[in-house]
Design brief:
This protein is an alpha/beta fold and 186 residues long. The protein has 5 helices and 11 strands; from the N terminus they run E-E-H-H-E-E-E-H-E-H-E-H-E-E-E-E. Helix content is 24%, strand content 38%. Strand 1 and strand 2 (21-31) form a beta hairpin.
Length: 186
């Protein structure tokens, strides 16, 4: 018998001071049976970091949502689509292989990878030379201590505040807060 995804609900208040974007997002996250709380929370962070693109790229007439991710390799973990359904931003979380990343670069205007955990540096050294060609690709490293701390915020029902200022995201639940300062690798 196949295991089902676990459903998490989150209310995410985004205050992106860097981009002048302020909005509340009611989110449903389906955590695949093989997905960890850490990875799920990185998906949520990726959405928060790119929420301003709803206004910047789509002028408010688009959809920023979680994709099927681990359940369907043809969908990203998070994506931004305009009102016509065209994929503007394709976001992957973790350490994906080079071929799916390159394929995604052909499907979307921009592709962003948020890698995390202790093996990220090894993954990047092994894949970096294969990803020099795509000009619409960005790769960020989430520090391990921050990604592990994010996992502690995971609850079946979450009320979260994300503040983005000077390229640092602070994610909190009213009791605990975690600062995430990304390292850009590409």
């Amino acid at each position: 018998m196949a295991l089902k995804s676990t459903i998490f609900k989150a209310t995410l208040a985004v205050a992106d001071i860097d981009h002048g974007y302020y909005a509340d997002h009611a989110l449903t996250l389906a955590r695949h049976p093989s997905e960890t709380d850490e990875r799920m929370m990185i998906r949520l962070v990726a959405l928060a970091l790119n929420a301003h693109q709803l206004q910047d790229i789509c002028q408010g007439d688009g959809t920023l949502a979680f994709g099927a991710g681990l359940s369907n390799v043809d969908e990203p973990d998070v994506w931004l689509r305009d009102f016509t359904g065209e994929v503007k931003i394709w976001i992957e979380v973790g350490q994906p292989e080079d071929k799916p990343i390159i394929k995604a670069c052909g499907k979307a205007d921009e592709v962003i990878v948020y890698c995390f955990n202790h093996a990220a540096e090894i993954w990047w050294r092994g894949i970096e030379n294969k990803l020099t060609r795509p000009q619409n690709l960005k790769v960020y490293r989430v520090p391990t201590n921050a990604s592990q701390a994010l996992a502690a915020l995971a609850q079946r029902s979450m009320q979260l505040q994300a503040t983005i200022q000077e390229n640092t995201l602070t994610l909190g639940d009213g009791v605990n807060s975690i600062d995430v300062e990304l390292l850009r690798w590409k």
